[in-house]
Write a structure and sequence with these properties.
Layout lengths: L2 H12 L5 H8 L7 E8 L3 E2 L3 H6 L8 E4 L6 E2 L4 E8 H32 L5 E3 L9 H10 L13 E3 L1 H4 L6 H11 L5 E5 L2 H7 L6 E5 L3 H10 L5 E5 L7 H5 L5 E3 L2 H4 L6 E5 L2
Length: 277
């Protein structure tokens, strides 16, 4: 879905029969619907993401104009104005919550991602996202990860071959033979294999796969596993990655750390919307 399609769908969800409050203020109390300015203001330190949704406001046929003061990936401090929109008062109130929900969600993802990136920036390790995303909102959340300084893992099940626990349990023949066959038949497709034990790492390291995911391993086990992985194969640590732990994991020398929390558990960034009197 495009930003304008998402905004239209969420506005329909939020006001299926129109804005009852504004309707009554206009018709019953004769409140003026003059043009005014609404300001999106940061209430916390954040990394901004959501430009596409702010710009899409102009395409709603609501006679709204938008001015941006920051771009995706910018650091914003409390009290700074992110953007402003100009138009009829009722239209500003109408789009307020929808837009705040969208840019707050995306800025929250970007902000948490940046915190993880900062913990590992003294190493060569890169922070990756996962597929633990909001349904139908994945592409935007993954963009927000990039705005926060992270990297995208596979976008979807069609992006690459990744064998995890529930795939490996169905393989009956030798793991080395199976993975070698798989790579020979799909030489242009990246293959990642999840390993939970050193024995699995040892077997997979003897195949031509592209990346080994060290799943839910403690620091000593990760270090031992890295000694088994040849330089031709990239390494990735995953599972229960927190801000308290990620630095130590990165310092083992692993190439990547995938963090589901940056999308599935990012707090919504605190942004307010204030309309001029």
């Amino acid at each position: 879905m495009t930003p304008i399609e998402i905004i239209k769908a969420t506005l329909k969800e939020d006001a299926p029969s129109g804005d009852l409050t504004c309707k009554n203020l206009l018709h019953e109390l004769k409140i003026d619907n003059d043009k005014t300015i609404g300001h999106f203001i940061a209430k916390q330190d954040l990394i901004f993401s959501g430009t596409a949704f702010l710009l899409a406001i102009k395409d709603l046929a609501l006679n709204l104009e938008v001015e941006l003061f920051f771009k995706d990936g910018d650091k914003i401090k409390p009290g700074q104005h992110i953007a402003q929109i100009f138009g009829p008062w009722t239209h500003l109130v109408y789009v307020e919550r929808t837009v705040l929900n969208l840019i707050g969600r995306l800025s929250g993802v970007a902000t948490l991602t940046r915190k993880f990136v900062e913990q590992v920036q003294h190493t060569s390790c890169q922070i990756l996202d996962t597929r633990k995303t909001t349904p139908l909102f994945r592409s935007f959340e993954k963009q927000a990860v990039v705005h926060g300084g992270g990297k995208n893992h596979r976008m979807n099940l069609s992006s690459e071959i990744m064998l995890k626990e529930n795939h490996l349990c169905r393989i009956n023949e030798s793991l080395i033979v199976s993975l070698t066959k798989l790579k020979e038949k799909n030489p242009q497709i990246k293959i990642t294999v999840e390993c939970q034990t050193l024995d699995e790492v040892r077997q997979v390291s003897a195949t031509p796969v592209d990346q080994i995911m060290l799943d839910n391993m403690d620091i000593p086990l990760i270090i031992q596993a890295l000694d088994l992985i040849p330089k031709s194969i990239k390494s990735e640590a995953s599972g229960n990655m927190s801000l308290d732990r990620v630095k130590a994991v990165a310092e083992t020398g692993v190439n990547f750390i995938s963090v589901g929390a940056i999308t599935h558990s990012a707090p919504v960034a605190d942004i307010s919307f204030i309309i001029d009197n």
